[in-house]
Specification:
It is a single chain. By secondary structure, the protein is an alpha+beta fold. The protein has helices at about 10-20, 65-85, 90-105, 120, 140-145, 220-230, 260-270, 280-290, 300-325, 355-365, 370-375, 440-445, 495-500; strands at about 30-40, 45-50, 55-60, 65, 110-115, 135-140, 145-150, 155-160, 165-170, 180-185, 200-205, 210-215, 230-235, 240, 245, 340, 385-390, 405-410, 415-425, 445, 460-465, 475-480, 485-495, 510. It is built from 13 helices and 24 strands. Strands 9-8-12-6-5-15 form a six-stranded mixed β-sheet. A five-stranded mixed β-sheet has the order 11-10-7-13-14. A hairpin with a 5-residue loop joins strand 13 and strand 14. The protein is globular, with a radius of gyration of 29 Å. The N and C termini lie far apart (about 100 Å). The relative contact order is 0.12.
Length: about 500
């Protein structure tokens, strides 16, 4: 048989035809416009009616219908609103407090409001009930560099940016180590060549609006008086003046961020005249898509108002679930329900590879402010540690209609004192006990209470519920029926036994 020699181009053509014949043939385009199919069944081609949890999406010859496009755009806006909600938790909480400083307490820049009474503290997320907060705010875009001549003595404070990130501690855990000293607070992007920084502890700010806060830890009124009198503040280059302290107002403010659409109004208020950080570029992009921009009014359409309201509510519920069952944290003790607040909390929003979103909103959903001293694992008089839980011994959430007991073993690791305080799951603030004579005492008990009954071995049994068990009134904290609650155990002057976990509180046990 005579062989036929094929030329290379013809051979390639024949091989291509054979290969094509061996390939699986495309499936026929689905024609399905009447019966809905799930997203997992969808081919995203031809005619399909796809069922989603936000409505049906219809394809006609692979084209989306106008209604489907609108549904998808609305869903995209909702997803972005949820992400913005979580990102903005720290700034919205601070914006609430910043507004109250002038609107409710009449404070000007660099005036300090003292929060001591129940009414003054009930708006602060998970406030302590034992030591006063001394808080001021400043807008460095209006004041320029500030100088604080900080007093010597027992105190714990800090300079905090509007993302609630610590810029520098003051007092025992600060650069002055409790001996006092001058701090120079420099605005973001300021030309420091104009400044003589010699003799100052320098703090560089990342936002224009900042909090300046402290707690005077001494119980000696004369010492606190001296600290206030020697607390000086003013603009760089001007004569410093004694700080003004606004005290005994007994006024309330709402510190829990507004819910619904008003939450995004707070976000819009925050971003005005604030520098945008490179790490937040994607969130600012979302804000722009949602009509929230620096220098422009916030006027959402009625449809967008509905989407933002839903996004705020869903965002809050997602943050609440993360706080109840943290996605990026573990219980502090084995076989226990207790978490250590801030143990998994980064002091920055980002690393070279991560954005700490879940870690951040786990804390900021129920708390405000953080400094290096609050997170410290070093025993000392300026270190405060926090233990918290949402569950009893059996893993059930803590309810205001039930009564619980908790055992604190002897040797609570606090060189100053310890306190157990309870908060509303709804507001994350003090439970407002309507019938309590002393509301601070009804929501918090500490080791300095002269009426506290201590067991012979030095341990303490505490009781939490709507009504005190008979004979246990001195060791009882009051809840409200129908209001879920959670505790914080604070150790002031935390000792090594908490860090090495040789001291461990009992879990809450249901009595009725």
């Amino acid at each position: 048989m005579k062989r036929i020699k094929l030329k290379a181009p013809l051979l390639l053509v024949i091989m291509g035809v054979i290969a094509a014949c061996n390939q699986p043939q495309p499936k026929a385009i689905v024609q399905n416009t009447t019966e809905t199919i799930s997203l997992t069944e969808a081919t995203l081609q031809g005619d399909e009616l796809i069922k989603t949890n936000f409505g049906n999406i219809q394809l006609k010859e692979s084209y989306l219908t106008e209604t489907s496009i609108q549904n998808l755009n609305n869903q995209l806006n909702l997803q972005r609103a949820i992400e913005v909600y979580q990102w903005a938790l720290p700034v919205t909480t601070f914006q609430m407090w910043y507004n109250a400083h002038s609107e409710i307490y009449g404070g000007a820049y660099m005036d300090f409001v003292e929060y001591s009474s129940f009414n003054e503290k009930v708006g602060i997320l998970t406030a302590n009930a034992t030591t006063p907060y001394v808080i001021s705010w400043a807008d460095l875009s209006k004041t320029g560099p500030l100088v604080i001549d900080y007093p010597a003595g027992a105190s714990a404070g800090g300079i905090i940016d509007f993302y609630q990130l610590a810029l520098g501690d003051l007092g025992l855990m600060g650069a002055d180590k409790g001996k006092g000293g001058k701090y120079l607070i420099i605005p973001n992007g300021y030309d420091t060549s104009k400044l003589n920084t010699k003799g100052y502890f320098v703090i560089h700010c990342t936002t224009n609006k900042i909090m300046i806060g402290t707690r005077f830890l001494s119980t000696d009124k004369a010492e606190i008086k001296t600290m206030k009198e020697t607390f000086l503040i003013g603009k760089y280059g001007e004569t410093l003046k004694p700080a003004k302290f606004i005290s005994k107002t007994n006024k309330r403010f709402q510190g829990t961020p507004f819910r619904g659409l008003k939450y995004f109004e707070l976000v819009h208020q925050f971003i005005q005249n604030e520098p945008q950080k490179e790490e937040d570029k994607i969130f600012y992009t979302y804000l722009k898509y949602l009509g929230i921009e620096n220098g422009k009014p916030f006027n959402p359409s009625e449809q967008l108002k509905t989407i933002l309201t839903e996004g705020a509510n869903l965002g809050e519920l997602m943050c609440r679930s993360n706080q109840m069952k943290p996605r990026k944290d573990q219980v502090y003790y084995k076989n226990s329900k207790w978490y250590r607040l801030l143990s998994n909390f980064p002091l920055t929003k980002t690393s070279n590879t991560n954005y700490f979103l879940d870690e951040s909103n786990q804390y900021y959903y129920e708390a405000v402010t953080v400094t290096a001293g609050m997170k410290s694992n070093t025993p000392g008089p300026g270190t405060t540690s926090y233990l918290t839980t949402k569950e009893d011994k059996n893993g059930n959430v803590l309810l205001g209609s039930k009564t619980y007991a908790i055992h604190l073993p002897a040797g609570v690791p606090a060189s100053n004192f310890w306190a157990l305080t309870i908060y509303s799951e709804n507001t994350r603030c003090f439970i407002d006990n309507k019938n309590a004579t002393n509301k601070l005492r009804a929501t918090s008990i500490d080791s300095r209470d002269n009426n506290l009954v201590i067991n012979a071995d030095g341990s303490v049994n505490l009781y939490i519920g709507p009504k005190a068990p008979e004979g246990k009134e001195n060791n009882w904290l009051q809840t409200n029926v129908g209001e879920g609650w959670f505790p914080l155990i604070r150790t002031y002057g935390t000792q090594q036994a908490l860090f090495d976990k040789t001291w461990k509180p009992g879990d809450f046990e249901l009595l009725e």
